[in-house]
Design a protein that fits this description.
Number of strands: 8
CATH topology: TIM Barrel
Strand content: 5-15%
CATH architecture: Alpha-Beta Barrel
Number of domains: 1
Oligomer: single chain
Largest sheet: 8 strands, parallel
Shape: globular
Radius of gyration: 17 Å
């Protein structure tokens, strides 16, 4: 049986001070979250491994994640951060790879927070994307629907690069926005080999994160990416803003109940293992 993998979660310590978005107004999120909080949730869901993802745009936080992962046997990989436009990007990346001692599986710039909707197309990023591909590292695309056009052009220019679109590109479910997002996701699925991460949807659904509200969004990514390119993730602890770990895991299982056992095995583990090169 394919091991179950949570392909997207975070750890943080508020006192570190490099989480610009993490303020007291975030309520339940404004506290430390670490392996001791997540491990029992994984156990109840039968999840054997996870991918730990950056939540601050600093290399210091990535090294913090390496330390956390080294102390948590269930963490199989880290998606970190470094400045992709830096003139010394290659050297920075090499140091992170060495520091990670096999844990670094990908890089994630926080594109959703960048004002320029065409940032991904800057020529200053060309070499960085080539270096990621040459190192066998994943590019995690944290984008919003308005950035999908630029993402398509960038991904199409690097067919050798493994790309994972985080949180289904954060469709505006709360406002029932669908057509523009759906069209752009269809184009990405058809014209590239990108994966789509089935995560983060409950926090985009506003005051109604019900399965019925999420259903057409999930059905669309299943249809266009197929179960062979879908990867499940919790987005814990961010998902605590709109639900809890067990509820989202159960909802995702229910929404994918029509898939075969092999297809569900791929979505809930096999695809993450393949995309991120996890050694379990």
């Amino acid at each position: 049986m394919t091991p179950k993998v949570d392909a997207h979660h975070h750890f943080w310590k508020v006192a570190r001070g490099d989480y610009g978005w993490l303020t007291p107004e975030k309520g339940v999120l404004y506290r430390d979250y670490g392996p001791e909080d997540l491990e029992p949730l994984l156990g109840r869901a039968g999840i054997e491994a996870s991918v730990l993802v950056q939540a601050a745009p600093t290399e210091a936080e990535t090294r913090f994640l390496f330390a956390e992962a080294s102390a948590a046997p269930f963490v199989a990989g880290v998606v970190g951060w470094t400045e992709m436009e830096a003139a010394d990007f290659e050297a920075r990346l090499e140091i992170l790879v060495d520091d990670g001692q096999g844990l670094l599986k990908g890089i994630r710039p926080m594109v959703q927070d960048i004002a320029d909707p065409e940032w991904l197309l800057r020529v200053t990023l060309d070499d960085a994307f080539k270096r990621l591909a040459s190192k066998g590292l994943v590019f995690d695309a944290l984008v919003r629907p308005g950035q999908l056009g630029a993402l398509l052009r960038r991904v199409a220019a690097h067919p050798e690069l493994t790309v994972v679109i985080d949180h289904c590109a954060k469709p505006d479910i709360a406002r029932a926005a669908f057509e523009h997002w759906a069209t752009a996701m269809t184009e990405l699925a058809r014209e590239t080999s990108a994966y789509c991460k089935l995560s983060g949807l409950v926090t985009e659904a506003g005051d109604d994160p019900s399965p019925a509200r999420l259903q057409r969004y999930v059905e669309h990514v299943v249809d266009v990416f197929t179960p062979a390119r879908l990867i499940w993730g919790s987005d814990w602890p961010v998902l605590n803003l709109a639900g809890n770990y067990g509820a989202w895991f159960g909802t995702a299982q229910d929404l994918l109940a029509g898939l075969s056992d092999a297809e569900r095995g791929a979505v809930f583990g096999g695809n993450a293992i393949r995309a991120y090169g996890l050694d379990l």
